[in-house]
Design brief:
Number of domains of chain A: 1
Helix content of chain B: 40-55%
Shape of chain A: globular
Number of helices of chain B: 9
Oligomer: heterodimer
Number of domains of chain B: 2
CATH topology of the largest domain in chain B: Rossmann fold
CATH topology of chain A: Amino acid/polyamine transporter I
Helix content of chain A: 55-70%
Number of strands of chain B: 10
Number of helices of chain A: 20
CATH architecture of the largest domain in chain B: 3-Layer(aba) Sandwich
Strand content of chain B: 15-25%
Radius of gyration of chain A: 22 Å
Structural class of chain A: mainly alpha
Distance between the termini of chain B: 28 Å
Number of strands of chain A: 0
Structural class of chain B: alpha/beta
Distance between the termini of chain A: 30 Å
CATH class of the largest domain in chain B: Alpha Beta
Chain lengths: 491, 317
Amino acid sequence: MSAAASGSAGLGTQLFRRKPVNHMRAGVEHGAELKRTIGTFQLTMFGVGATVGTGIFFVLSEAVPKSGPSVVISFLIAGVAAGLAAICYAELASAIPVSGSTYSYAYAALGEVVAMGVAACLLLEYGVSTAAVAVGWSQYLNKLSDNLFGFQLPSALSHAPWDDDPGVLNLPAVILVVLCALLLIRGASESAAVNTVMVVIKLSVLAMFIVIAFTAFDTDNLADFAPFGVSGIGAAAGTIFFSFIGLDAVSTAGEEVKDPQRTMPRAIIFALLTVVTIYVLVALTAVAAQPWQEFEGQEAGLAQILENIVGSSWPGTVVAAGAVISIFSVTLVTMYGQTRILFAMGRDGMLPQRFAQVNPRSQTPVFNTIVVAIVVSILAAFVPLDKLADLVSIGTLVAFIVVSIGVIILRRTMPDLPRGFKVPGYPVTPILSVIACLYVLSGLSWITYAWFLVWLLIVLAFYFLWGRRHSELNPGALVVDPDDPNPAGDR
Amino acid sequence: MTIVVGFSPEKGGRATLELAVLLARSGRVEPLVVTTVTPQHWTTPSMAKVDAEFQAWATGQGDVALQQAQEFLAGKAPELDVSYRQVAGRSVPAALATACADAGGSLLVLGSSRDSRPGQVVLGSTSEPLLHSSEVPVAIAPRGYRAQCTAISRLTCSYSGAEESGDLLVAVAEMSRRVGGTLRVVTFGVRGRTMYPPEVGLHAEDMVLDRWKTQVGTQQRTALDRLSELGLLPDSATATIVTGSDWADSMAELEWQRGEILVVGSSPLGPLARVFVGSRATKIIRYSPVPVVVVPAAVASKVAEEVETESAAEVKD
């Protein structure tokens, strides 16, 4: 595509051109067997399964030092923000039933340049969270092998160079990422049944934690409830938000949900209530069981707390084993999400076509998966957990704000678009969602903002220099007609 | 081009012979070598000569088997040039492979395992090892196969879009020119399973499948263009992409004719000169309702090379 041709459309039109919605529905016929079969319970399981496990196993040691015992309130605030955003998410997903997550919704509703900005956020939400989760997994793996076999990897091989306890690289995290990439290349996936089993494992482990930690409940530990005041609560909420990502998984299943107008908000609320209840109980019993000053730098936190309470290693072992199993599946799922978002971008011409190339042997996007695995491994190997967690939160929050604004914009620009689900209490709900997300954002440190801006600028620069000229929406680009029943053609 | 038949009367022998007759009769008539493998006797003579007795019994069994084959073929295809051989061996697949090489065979015909349901192609203890070691193409008849026609009506080439399957297609087109029958190019696609929890929506794999279809469509067109450049593209050739939620589903999408043969290539991951069936081909074979011919990657690329030199020579003339 020549620069002259792309320039002729006018830069403004080009930046805010939107992908036609019916164009994006291409290829949905194979999901036919899934049509309208999902009920409230299963949908709730999606939400709980996707959310629990991303952060709760390790976020306390990052968040409690910022807020003290009032971390409990931070969990509530982050939960409310995530819930409001998930409801907005559901409307957008039902109006634009396509894969590729928020990126595709933004492309259809708000235009190309916004979609690219959202993509930058999603790369943080999925890519960086895969790395963060892998780092957390490595802590629990070390804990488990120490308890079972008395063997622990040397610090050099289990810590990032800029960690509080500096090492060379985080080897277990890299191995986990590579294993997940191999599974994805082979075309493995987690079935609904496995998801349910994983949910049960995670919930049992956390329930065990709550029960045992409750026996050591000491109100003295809560006496200094908010040592850093309101700002501390906000700061912790920003970090904690990380543990609520995944709640949007409920919203993306909209097409198959029976009676979405009723089921969708119920499932989001049930999932949110379950998750918030568990998180708050875990946080409350944890901060009541040990003084808040002790959380800082605690690795495999939940397992460590239980061992300190009971004075024996078995509860820690059980928690660590549960965490090792369930976090593995979380890594697989988030990494999968990352590859499919990049796939959608490659398909749209926002990234080189190779990202949307399917390997004929495995019928999976192998190149794409390898790139994701390499980048995520590097992040997981060299960047400590606290830095990663905040970046994930900022990316997710910005994406959620765009979604909430997108609901309002789409209601105005395309009021007649069929929507399987409409946000109750419009326009108050999306506005509240934006405010809640902004509040949580305000707690993050300026360094996180700086990194985020740098990253956003890199992605947008890439768009201006490359993506803008290669977009499939450019005149003359190879656009595959979705209405053509047999694109290969009989010869 | 000699066709070697691995025959064992109680192991789907009739189906094997039916397929061998169909293959031998299609195009120019080919000679058949019916081979049966009997157990090798113990080479150290024992005092009571039980080994000699056993060998006599085994040879007798082999003769009975060959007699059966002879009776069947005399009735079914008296015009064919058939020879009968009995070989002794400790391993049936190894003995068959040697016998095939000795007879100068270019195709080995086998039956399905007795564990299979009628009409199904299931690899047994003879075909399974051969599919991982044979140096010539191997044809496998479904259980209880009856040809119901006198010549191959259509050759279906399983084309994956990977590099090596281009050569396979040339080889199959060349075969279709030689033996007659139309040519069909089929690519099988299976939709990836949905990931749960569905963080990017339940349709992410439809997007991948859709893209794959476009990609394979282009590859099929390029491959057919190559055939037409080589002068191997019959007018009746068709190309299709079938997809399903799993392999059985995808295979069930296709219509099959009487006298149709499915040709699959072996994976290039195994030793180059031999058949090595990959995981995808194994599944295609398992769900095939028609006889399957498995072609080693080396044989396919050799044929493709020959055809290309030939066509280049013609252009020069």
